[in-house]
User: Which sequence fits this backbone?
């Protein structure tokens, strides 16, 4: 997959370089010759860029949202499957992390501090 | 497309770290055999392997980043930390040589005549070629900043011109230093003065050559439209390294050439 992508993009890069006059005019024409990320990003970088523009964060780059952890405002835990490990630091600076599996369905509570956690499905762009 | 839920780059296995390590071994042992036995085989082998490693590894990185898009924002952040830490380690490397210089020169031993420069040493005039050699890295710092701003603003031709100018200034510095080395009235063997002078300026010169090569290598991706106005870390790293090299020269000039004369 990656080899095919490489071949294709290398071929395109090689041919555009040979035909310098025409691409120089169309490439980055608004900015003076250097392409922008919009025009040139590819692969995962492009996915991340596109998703960020739509306000989504499929690859969990940003800090997770803060929740109260109560029954009405449980911590929402995204998962690509139907379960995910949760590590609860019940109080700030606690050194003992409470680890447990969170399954889809009803919200579960941390066995130590009782905060509510709920699994939510997470979509990955493919 | 990778079916991963994170934005990091899990690299594929590659032989280049191994060949790089082997070339380091061959070059160091080759240097030793050259000094003792006057044979250059190991050194030559090591250098060839090093050049091969550099070419192949950096080609691979360009493929992974520009052509395959693996260098997302978190990956770039990691690379930036890496470069900063590397330059910091190089700063400490030079701190060692400055320590050696000041140790010997602040309280000159009686064997040197109790003064610095030691008796019998005619130091280079700091207001002749060394002053020119100070103006050159300062000017190249300006040109590399010019190049950076050109890239960020998307101006291709000025970026090309300023980057080329930076490389030319770097080569000019190396040429001037080489001439100074040839014409100097003292050598590495001339006591602690010669030793501290040539080791400190010599390693600096080596770093100038590395920095110039780095900038030259940046010209290639630039001419092939690899850089974007936002994402051009290879160039950022080269510019940081180049500024570091210029700053080290400033310290060298003030300590060894000016104060030490």
Assistant:
């Amino acid at each position: 997959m990656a080899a095919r992508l490489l071949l294709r993009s290398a071929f395109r890069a090689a041919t555009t370089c040979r035909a310098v006059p025409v691409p120089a005019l169309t490439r980055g024409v608004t900015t003076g010759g250097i392409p922008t990320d919009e025009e040139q990003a590819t692969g995962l970088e492009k996915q991340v860029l596109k998703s960020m523009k739509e306000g989504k964060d499929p690859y969990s780059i940003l800090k997770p949202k803060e929740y109260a952890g109560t029954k009405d405002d449980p911590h929402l835990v995204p998962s690509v499957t139907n379960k995910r490990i949760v590590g609860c630091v019940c109080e700030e600076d606690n050194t003992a992390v409470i680890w447990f599996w969170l399954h889809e369905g009803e919200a579960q509570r941390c066995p130590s501090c009782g905060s509510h956690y709920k699994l939510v499905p997470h979509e990955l762009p493919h | 497309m990778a079916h991963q839920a994170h934005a990091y780059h899990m690299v594929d296995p590659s032989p280049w770290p191994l060949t790089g390590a082997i070339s380091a071994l061959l070059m160091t042992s080759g240097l030793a055999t050259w000094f003792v036995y006057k044979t250059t085989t190991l050194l030559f082998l090591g250098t060839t392997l090093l050049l091969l490693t550099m070419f192949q590894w950096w080609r691979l990185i360009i493929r992974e980043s520009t052509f395959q898009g693996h260098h997302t924002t978190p990956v770039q952040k990691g690379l930036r930390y890496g470069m900063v830490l590397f330059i910091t380690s190089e700063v400490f490397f030079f701190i060692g040589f400055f320590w050696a210089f000041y140790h010997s020169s602040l309280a000159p031993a009686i064997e040197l005549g109790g003064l610095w420069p030691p008796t019998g040493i005619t130091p280079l005039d700091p207001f002749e070629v060394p002053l020119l050699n100070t103006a050159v890295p300062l000017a190249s710092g300006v040109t590399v900043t010019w190049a950076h701003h050109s890239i960020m603003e998307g101006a291709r031709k000025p970026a090309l011109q300023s980057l080329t100018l930076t490389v030319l200034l770097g080569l000019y510095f190396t040429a001037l230093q080489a001439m100074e080395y040839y014409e100097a009235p003292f050598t590495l063997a001339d006591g602690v003065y010669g030793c501290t002078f040539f080791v400190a300026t010599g390693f600096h010169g080596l770093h100038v050559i590395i920095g110039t090569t780095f900038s030259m290598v940046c010209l290639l991706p630039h001419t092939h439209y690899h850089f974007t106005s936002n994402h051009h870390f290879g160039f950022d790293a080269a510019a940081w390294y180049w500024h570091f090299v210029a700053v080290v020269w400033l310290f060298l000039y003030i300590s060894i050439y000016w104060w030490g004369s």
About this structure: DSSP finds seven helices and no strands in chain B. Chain B has two domains: 1-70, 74-258.
